[in-house]
Amino acid sequence: MVGLKEELLKSIWHAFTALDPDRSGKVSKSQLKASGGRRARGPGGVLSHNLCTVLNVPHDPVALEEHFRDDDEGPVSNQGYMPYLNKFILEKVQGNFDKVEFNRMCWTLCAKKNLSKSPLLISDEDAFKVWVIFNFLSEDKYPLIIVPEEIEYLLKKITEAMGAGWQQEQFDHYKIALNTSREGLSAWELIDLIGSGQFSKGMDRQTVSMAINEVFNELILDVLKQGYMLKKGHKRKNWMERWFVLKPNIISYYVSEDLKEKKGDIILDGNCCVEALPDKDGKKCLFLIKCLDKTFEISASDKKKKQEWIQAIQSTVNLLRAGSPPPHKEARQKRKELRQKLLAEQEELERQMKELQASNENKQKELETVRKQLEAAAARAAEEEKKRLQTQVELQDRFSLELEREKMVRQKMEEQVAQKSSELEQYLQRVRELEEMYKQLQEALEDEKQARQDEETVRKLQARLLEEETAKRAELEKWHLQQQQTIQMTEAEKQELENQRMMKEQALQVAMQQLKQLELERKEALEQYEEVKKKLETAANNTKSWKDKVAHHEGLIRLIEPGSKNPHLITNWGPAAFTEAELEERQRSWKGKKATSE
Hints:
two-stranded antiparallel sheet, alpha+beta
């Protein structure tokens, strides 16, 4: 609604300013309201009533009287009329009005007064369309102007619609001449520029009129594409030629291009889609528009037109899905934002330049002040230098006299200094001799002191060594006594150990003899064991034969085999030749022999 209000205000501004003959910015109330039967009704006297009529807003004739309570013939300023316009008219606009009719009403009020009297190459209708396009492309500030960038955009669109080539160099020259005098053109100057044919040379009036109408349809009526195509009926299924007009949210189709008889609308939204169809029923270049409630089959004149319409409809649906405005409105907004950005940067640059200029001026003033101070200082320095030179001459004369006197005094002083120097030299020689003697005496005292310290150190060392020697001697005597006692004890233990060793050697020899004896006895026992074993095998074979016979004749009988009552011992070489009791008896015999030998 804010964008719609801005567009309405631009057209109303033209009508309002047309009612101000002396351009004072003030208009009488009788020109803004309905006459109420007391004043003549004319284009300028019924502005408020006509606005309410074309905008489909209820008209309140009392509101203007209550809003301005001064004399009925008193003037009303532009600033004072704007609150009334916003509150009682624009705030009530719903958008259900004919934009062309509204603009034509405002054009009627302002065109006769402002339109150029010189002949133009365009008709009044084309001038009206250029005026409406101007309101669309002009800046949002008053008085309204169209900047060179928008003029170039509009002229390019018209040139492209005419099928001619764009003369950029010609426009650049025009733009340079325009920028040197003003920021842009008014609506009437733009009409004069286009009507003069300066940028449409070689084109007839009809071609220029058709180009202006095409740009008007695109920018103002939001016509994205239009043309003749065949449409298949929903009931009778027949094909009829219709004039189609594509807008951002609707496709309207008419009987002819004069748009007098509308046959229907195709409402577009984000759910619609368009698809190409193969040729059928003798119809070519077919495509299909699918909506939620209906489907439309359409036939284009050729493949190129078919592809153009499919792309245009699909682009419109994509914009509806994204919620984006029509391309020309989005491009205009982007151009405005870019100009605002460039203007802000330019203002910032100008502000910085002003700051730099002010800073430069301040620096210049400071430099001028410093220069004046330096000149004054130089003058003072020259005066001081002159006085200094004069003073220097006087001082040189005085110093010459003083120098002569000082030479004489100096000569006397040198003689006295020579005498004093000789005496001082003798005195210094004597002092050096005394210092030398003092040093020698100091060295002698130091040597004596060091000798006494060394003597004391040696004496203390001898005393300590003597004490240590006495302690060592006592300790050695103690160790000697302990060694003697240890030697005596060692001799006795050695004798006892020797006796024990002799006894153990004797016992070992006895044990070796006994072991040899046992070895002989073991061999004898093994021989006896072999004999017994052979006898046992023979007896076992006999017993087995006998047991088999008995078992065969008398049944199973438990036999008791003969053997020793005592258990046999098993050695590493087999069964022992003696029993455990015999072994114990022999051990007692060995122990007795060993005790006797000890």
